[in-house]
Structures are given as C-alpha cells and as structure tokens.
Amino acid sequence: MTQTFSGNASFLNNGNDLIVVLGHGQLARMMYLGATQLGLNILAVNADTKECVNPVDKTRLNLTLEQAFDHCIAITSEFEHLPKDLVKQAEATGKFRPGAKAIAAGADRIVEKTLLEDLGIANCPHRIIRNTEDLANAYTELGPKLILKTSRDGYDGYGQWRIFSLDELQDICNELQEFDFDHMPLVAEQCVSFEREISLLGVTDSQGNHDYYPLTENHHGAGQLVLSLARAPNVNAALQQQAQDIHDKIAEALSYTGVLAIELFQMGDKLLVNEIAPRVHNSGHWTQQGCAASQFENHIRAIAGLPLGSTQPQHLVAMVNYVGEPKPSIEILALKNIHLHWYDKGVRAKRKMGHINLVADSEAELQALITKVHALLPESLQANLAKLKA
Ligand code: AMP
Question: Fewer CB atoms < 10 Å away: N or C end of the chain?
Fold first, then answer.
C-alpha cells in the first residue's frame, strides 16, 4: 500500500523501491549515491536513536522505524557494531541482508574466529582470553609478540594492545586486574609477519551467484586504512583464486547476499584472514572510479534482487583517505583524474573525512599522478602517500 508522510513523501511514494540502511555515516551516504541511479530510494537509520534520517544531509525524517521496515523491499547495514535489539527487529522482517548471522560474525571476533576455524580457513593463531592467566598462557604459546583485541566494538585499530615483551605482558596483566572479562572476553593473536595486507571484495546476488573485484593492496597508519591500490600489483591467478575460494566458503556458510569484504594478510603464496566485514568497505572505495559498477551499486543491486553489474576493473586506482584533515586544496581538485568523495563531517583527529581516487590507465601514469598529488597534500597525508611512491 502506498502511504505518504508529511515532508517525506519522496521516501515512501513508491513502497516497492525503498531500502533501509542501519547506520547513517558515509557508507550509507555512498550507498544512496549508488542506489539513486538505479531509481531506488535509500533511507538511513541512526542506530543509537533509531530515528530515520536522510542519508545525505542527515535530517530527521517524519516516519518511524516500523513504518520504514514495513514499506521497504530490503534492509541492510553499513556497520556491524549495531545494538542487538535493532538487529533482531530487522531480522524479524525477513528482509535483512546479509542478515543477523553475518552481522554477528563481523561484530564479534570470537564468532568470527569460530566460523573461520569451522570452515578450515587459515587465520592468525589465537586464543580466547577470559582471565589474565589465559593471557599469560597465550603469551607462552604464541609469543613473543601478541596483539590483544577486544572481542567486540573494535575497529580502525581501537580496542587493541600490542604485547611485545614480558614486561609489557606484566603491565597489561596489572591493567586488566579489574577488567570485566565476562562482559568482554578478549582475543590474543600471534603478531604475524606478513608481506602485505590485501583485501577481497566479493558480491553475492540473491540467487547465490558470486562475483569479485580484483584484490586490493592496503596500507595502514595507526591501525587505520590510509591507502588502497587497485588492482594490487603482483597478484597471480592462483592468489586471486585462493581469496575467492575463501570468500565463497564464508558467503555460503552465512547464506550471504550483498558485498562481503575479507581483509587478508599475504605471507608468500598463502593468505591468512585477518577479519571479515559484512558490508561495503573502505578498501573498496576505489571501485567508484575503477569499475563499471561500484561496490555500492552492486551491494544495492544484490540486496534488491537485481542482476549484478560488472566488477571488471576499467582503470588503475590509488585511493587516499583524508584522515583528520579538511577538504583538499583547489590545486588538488584541479588535477585531472582526481575524484573527490567528501563526507561532510566535522573535522576531528583520526576521523575519516573523505577520500580521493587517483585514476590512471597505466602504472607509469599512476606514479606520475601520485607524485603530483604527494607534493600538494597536507603533511600527515603526504607521509601516507609516500608508501606508494616508486
Ligand atoms: P584489525 O582492526 O584487526 O584489522 O587490525 C588493524 C591492523 O593491525 C591490521 O590492518 C594490521 O595492520 C594490524 N594487525 C592486526 N592483527 C594483526 C596480527 N595478528 N599480526 C600483525 N598485525 C596485525
């Protein structure tokens, strides 16, 4: 039934084309941009207040979550750290994709590790930590370098401690004397020496068909993604296939529909899964200029039951995150083949403010562009981009 609500008619004037995104950050905004060209509407939900908001300007909409859930054709999310009751309510509609099981695997490292172990997928050697004695044992078994992570609510390097010596182990054990392990068990991972970090963005349509973007090389600063390079250089068919096989196993176990991101550590010709993200992902932002159908468009196509668009790369792209910095200068914007995606958020340290995609048709062209952009970037971002300079 078509129903209108004062001031928000465009969101509900055709009950068949509305998609609800749980979360109202930049990923919801970019999903909106990917959906609007398909003639679909996107409405975002502030996951804390449960208010429906416009995904672009974040203004509050005059309709309830229940009304939005009733009218939409699909519900998805831009973030896995969602309140449990909201996930439950979305799941109960039968329209939530990729669904509660996938969200749980992305939100809780213990659920994630259990899934990977059950599927026989290589990941970092680890132990679940429920008291300081577990931690001391993990250090003996997996040390001398451990990374301790909270099982939930950790992202972009938050909720992590490095334990690289017995002294550091002692300090952390002292710090954790009063820690509520029942509420928040920890995961201790062996700190592995990988050659590089890469990610696979795969997409599964509503019929269970999988498609994939080429592997992306990722660079981090302070635990946070700062750069992606796509296609990742030096990837042979076997490595791409290995990543796709991992993707298929996970997607099938989770009865997945939509984009699934898998963060990987490369060690020679072997891949270890670092973590999975049941959603569109920062390391897939390059697809906005690099491919015929971006990760955002394909996620929307998948959850709306539409055929997928092409994931074939059309250009080489270097994606630079603007972290804690204001909008790029006019000089940067004046460069041809630079594409700005700005999120319109207040500037704050460590906050992802936007990104630029540097687009080229050959490695030499990309290097020339990287050199030009490097010279014009603010200092903190210059240090990041230096990693890609030949
Ligand atoms: P995460 O939030 O788990 O993705 O961790 C953030 C970053 O920390 C990763 O992208 C890696 O650079 C690094 N890291 C995380 N876990 C490990 C590990 N077990 N060994 C080595 N580096 C790691």
Answer: N
